[in-house]
TrEMBL record:
It comes from the Bacteria. The keyword Cell wall biogenesis/degradation does not apply. Belongs to the glycosyl hydrolase 31 family. CDD domains: GH31_glucosidase_II_MalA, GH31_N. Residues 587-673 form the Glycosyl hydrolase family 31 C-terminal domain. The keyword Translocase does not apply. Residues 251-579 form the Glycoside hydrolase family 31 TIM barrel domain. This is Alpha-glucosidase. Residues 689-757 form the DUF5110 domain. Gene3D superfamilies: Glycosidases, glycosyl hydrolase (family 31), Golgi alpha-mannosidase II. Residues 38-209 form the Glycoside hydrolase family 31 N-terminal domain. It comes from Flavobacterium saccharophilum.
Length: 799
């Protein structure tokens, strides 16, 4: 019998004093006398990694989140020893590490405190599982705000919230319900007009407390693994988000059709029903590029099979849909039905590819097909096998995209909705239990799917969408926000979720328009469409249990509103494509909450509804029924009402009238917005003009337009067109300067320039310093010009 209670002590443990240190290249190691080691790595002058171990040595350094293709480097690093602390300096920040207890504080170069430890790193021995519960607490300043964490159904500003990260199948979740499907342990802090970021790269179940338990303390902890986090210095929020997105990686450019409108339901079958749906879109002239097949297309829900009764000749059907402009996207789940006559099951069983329990038997759980085993996607050999399974779907049948669902992983009829925690995983050579692998299971499935789709879609670009994800999943896949509900509350949630995902590195995200569960009213569906067309991923999806949710399931007015807003999205496709290009090239989020747009304006710090779409369009959805307008905040600067062209000055909250077929949309003064003609699907039309809506401003502004062949990989060889428009507006003069980068020559030959808000009558025009015959260039009206696309400078003079 053990009587020494000290052996059973389970309280918090802390680092003791530093007894030695080493400086090796970009890393500095601090050793304490109780065997804690802190490794500080300077990746960039504004990006510092802090990694702790309590064992006296570090385990293998491995992360699924970090993009290993990114090169890092700093400009300046200096370590000095003072009486009570060590000082690390870069060209952007200073970091003090206390000799007595490893507590650290970070300052800018003017000695303004950015972040400091409260208790700092501490831990608790986990006797039940082995290892540690690792904890970190930071002091929070008065007025400090917190943002990020990806998929959360709560306010944009997380101050006062306590949140959990554990990928969970949350059917019909509610506002404030937590956790949800995705895990993004990254947040942004803002105080004293300075932003910083923390990425806690730990795949165990993690928790974040933003001053809920203790007023001026922000803390984060995990049920196992290492205290391993990255500090990112701004001082602007855009710097933090860009650095985090670089660290965890960016996607490749999707084909342009993926940015169109998609239609989905659980489920469209048989083939005649699918064609009825697609034909109706064309009949009603509502643009649509993709039709989805949910689990009922399979034979008994067996992945990589077809129900031949419903779809007797899938290759022929997919080809016929393609002739009408529809790309087919199919669902693939992780659960593989236990069936000795099912070829996918036979292969995985023969090759020992399924996840196992701790005592040896295969993990078994019920999903749609019944009892299933589940591939271990943390095994690179299994991922390679899984990728190869897509040959028939993609290469032979012609499916254009794959949709991974139920990959939290979700398991039915068990209390925790997922695998038992004792399930074992290869974890790319770092064997572990499901406690560690759970949060990255969905990402590794999407990764394997991506490589398969990419292999067999080549030379076209792949399209993959996932429900569950961990930081870094954006390198392989888009996502949606899971099984939402047809309520006004969920419209509010969807708006915030997608904004938050965009500043959390996973920009290519949308919600199930109209709500997955239950049935929306026509008004709710119309308002959701009006929001959804401004999300990076745009798809209506619903549960067949609750009625129909196609645009024509409602009245004529809703059909017209749907057509109007989906058509607007198709007009804005070059603007969307440019947003995406800037996301993959520079890590700029496609949607920007107002606090991201202007963090120095304290009025933006608690705004939830309004957001910036791209760089130049302000959107504010209508989130309640029977609205004839709403109060909204117009950020600082000059703006035009998109619908009326009315000019206004921002930096204030005001009432905006709106109709049922409108929501408040404003365009930044000085912007040039590129537009295509409305197409029923991408590639339907050839056109000879690119419309440019130019919103006049006195002063200078810059806008961009990215274009390429709309699919394929020639853009990686420089065959793209990136136009930079610089506008200089004066009282009676407008100069448009154009610079082109890239070798791609667009098919159109002219720009149709709509001059909006021009305060003078045009009397003279010069192109590249040559006066132009006035009568030949004015088109339709004095404020619409048609010019050849090859100019360098357009000079418009008035009186």
């Amino acid at each position: 019998m053990i009587t020494n209670t000290s052996l059973e002590y389970k309280g918090d443990l802390y680092p003791s004093k530093i007894v030695s240190y080493e400086h090796e290249g970009d890393s500095i190691f601090f050793h304490t006398d109780n065997k804690v080691i802190l490794k500080v790595t300077i990746l960039r002058d504004s990006l510092i990694r802090f990694r702790f171990t309590t064992k006296g040595y570090f385990s293998n350094d491995f992360s699924y989140a970090i993009d290993k293709t990114q090169l890092h480097g700093y400009n300046f690093l200096e370590l000095t020893e003072e009486e009570t602390y060590f000082l690390i300096r870069t060209s952007k920040v200073k970091c003090k590490i206390q000799k007595a207890d490893l507590r650290l504080s970070i300052y800018d170069l003017s000695d303004l405190l950015i972040l400091e430890d409260e208790l700092g790193f501490h831990w608790e021995e986990s006797y039940e599982y082995g290892g540690n519960i690792v904890k970190m607490s930071k002091s929070s300043k008065d007025g400090e705000c917190f943002y990020g964490l990806g998929d959360k159904a709560t306010q944009m500003n997380l101050k006062g919230k306590r949140l959990e990260n554990f990928a969970t199948d949350q059917y019909a979740f509610q506002k404030e319900q937590d956790p949800l499907y995705k895990v993004v342990p990254f947040y942004i802090g803002l105080h004293n007009k300075q932003s910083y970021g923390i990425f806690f790269d730990n795949t165990f179940r993690t928790f974040f407390d933003f001053c809920q338990e203790r007023r001026n303390v922000a803390s984060f902890w995990a049920e196992g693994g290492e205290m391993n986090y990255y500090f990112i210095y701004g001082p602007q929020m855009q710097d933090v988000v860009t650095t985090y997105t670089d660290l965890t990686g960016k996607p490749e450019l999707p084909p342009l059709w993926v940015l169109g409108y998609h239609q989905c339901k659980w489920s469209y079958y048989p083939e005649s029903k699918v064609k009825e749906i697609t034909s109706k879109f064309r009949e009603l002239k509502i643009p649509c590029d993709a039709i989805y097949l949910d689990i009922d297309y399979m034979e008994g829900f067996r992945c990589f099979t077809w129900n031949k009764e419903y779809f007797p000749d899938p290759k022929k059907m997919v080809a016929e849909l393609a002739e009408d402009g529809f790309k087919t996207v199919v669902i693939i789940d992780p659960g593989i039905k236990i069936d000795k006559d099912y070829w996918v099951y036979q292969e995985a069983l023969e090759k020992d590819y399924f996840c196992k329990r701790a005592d040896g038997p295969y993990m078994k759980g019920k999903v749609w097909p019944g009892e299933c085993n589940f591939p271990d996607y943390t095994n690179p050999v299994v991922r390679e096998w899984w990728a190869g399974l897509f040959k028939e779907l993609i290469s032979d049948i012609g499916v254009k995209g794959v949709w991974n669902d139920m990959n939290e992983p979700a398991v039915m009829e068990v209390p925790n909705k997922t695998f038992p925690m004792d399930v074992r995983h290869v974890y790319d050579g770092n064997p572990c239990s499901h406690r560690k692998a759970h949060n990255i299971y969905g990402t590794q499935m999407a990764r394997a799917t991506y490589h398969g789709v990419k292999r067999f879609a080549y030379p076209k670009r792949p399209f993959v969408i996932t429900r569950s994800a961990y930081s870094g999943a954006q390198r392989y896949t888009s996502s949606w926000t899971g099984d939402n509900v047809a309520t006004w509350e969920h419209l509010w949630i969807a708006n915030i979720q997608v904004q938050r995902m965009c500043i959390s590195g996973m920009g290519f995200t949308g919600s199930d328009i109209g709500g997955f569960a239950e049935q929306p009213t026509g008004e709710l569906y119309a308002r959701w469409i009006q929001l959804g067309v401004f999300h990076p991923f745009c798809r209506t999806h619903s549960s067949g249990d609750h009625g129909n949710q196609e645009p024509w399931a409602f009245d004529e007015e809703v059909i017209n509103i749907t057509r109007k807003f989906v058509s607007l999205r198709y007009q804005l496709l070059p603007y969307l494509y440019t947003m995406f290009w800037q996301y993959i090239e520079e890590g700029i989020p496609m949607l920007k909450p107002l606090v991201y747009y202007d963090q120095e304006d304290i009025q933006t710090h608690y705004r939830n509804d309004e957001f910036i779409f791209g760089n130049e369009i302000l959107v504010c959805p209508i989130l309640e029924p029977n609205a004839v307008g709403r109060r909204m905040y117009i950020p600082r600067g000059e703006w035009y009402n998109y619908w009326t062209n009315e000019f206004l000055i921002g930096g204030r909250e005001l009432w905006v009238d709106t109709k049922f077929d409108e929501i408040p949309v404003f365009v930044k003064a000085g912007a040039i917005i590129p537009k295509y003609p409305v197409q029923q699907y991408v590639g339907e039309l050839e056109f000879d003009e690119l419309t440019l809506d130019l919103y006049f401003k006195i002063g200078k502004e810059q806008s961009f337009v990215y274009e390429d062949a709309q699919d394929g990989y020639d853009y990686k060889k420089g065959r793209y067109s990136y136009l930079s428009f610089r506008t200089i507006g004066k009282e009676k003069e407008l100069i448009i300067q154009l610079h082109k980068e890239g070798k791609y020559d667009t098919s159109y030959s002219k720009y149709r320039i709509n001059l909006i808000g021009l305060p003078f009558k045009v009397t003279e025009i010069e192109i590249d310093n040559e006066k132009v015959d006035f009568d030949k260039i004015i088109f339709e009206s004095s404020h619409v010009l048609l010019v050849d696309k090859g100019f360098n400078e357009l000079h418009i003079v008035g009186e």
